[in-house]
Amino acid sequence: MTPLGVGEDVGEYVADAVRVVRESGLPNRTDAMFTSVEGEWDEVMDVVKRAVAAVEARAPRVSLVLKADIRPGVTDGLTSKVATVERHLSE
């Protein structure tokens, strides 16, 4: 998510969105480019909607990039996918 029309320093606006994600209680991870959230579809979409609203409250325009990996029965994908790559790297 990127606030537009607020200048180049957008960290405080992004922090508003990340705060919503972290307070949701859903598994999540934030890096330099993205915030990943794991959960049931409706739960995650509710968090996304609230995160957008938090930024929208302070920015005149919000750009959102959303990617979904829908795999029924898979849990803990945020850490298990990384663990698999790390395992291959250590071989």
Automatic annotation (TrEMBL):
<dbReference type="GO" id="GO:0005829">
    <property type="term" value="C:cytosol"/>
</dbReference>
<dbReference type="InterPro" id="IPR029756">
    <property type="entry name" value="MTH1187/YkoF-like"/>
</dbReference>
<dbReference type="InterPro" id="IPR002767">
    <property type="entry name" value="Thiamine_BP"/>
</dbReference>
<comment type="similarity">
    <text>Belongs to the UPF0045 family.</text>
</comment>
<feature type="domain" description="Thiamine-binding protein">
    <location>
        <begin position="1"/>
        <end position="86"/>
    </location>
</feature>
<dbReference type="InterPro" id="IPR051614">
    <property type="entry name" value="UPF0045_domain"/>
</dbReference>
<protein>
    <submittedName>
        <fullName>UPF0045 protein</fullName>
    </submittedName>
</protein>
<dbReference type="Pfam" id="PF01910">
    <property type="entry name" value="Thiamine_BP"/>
</dbReference>
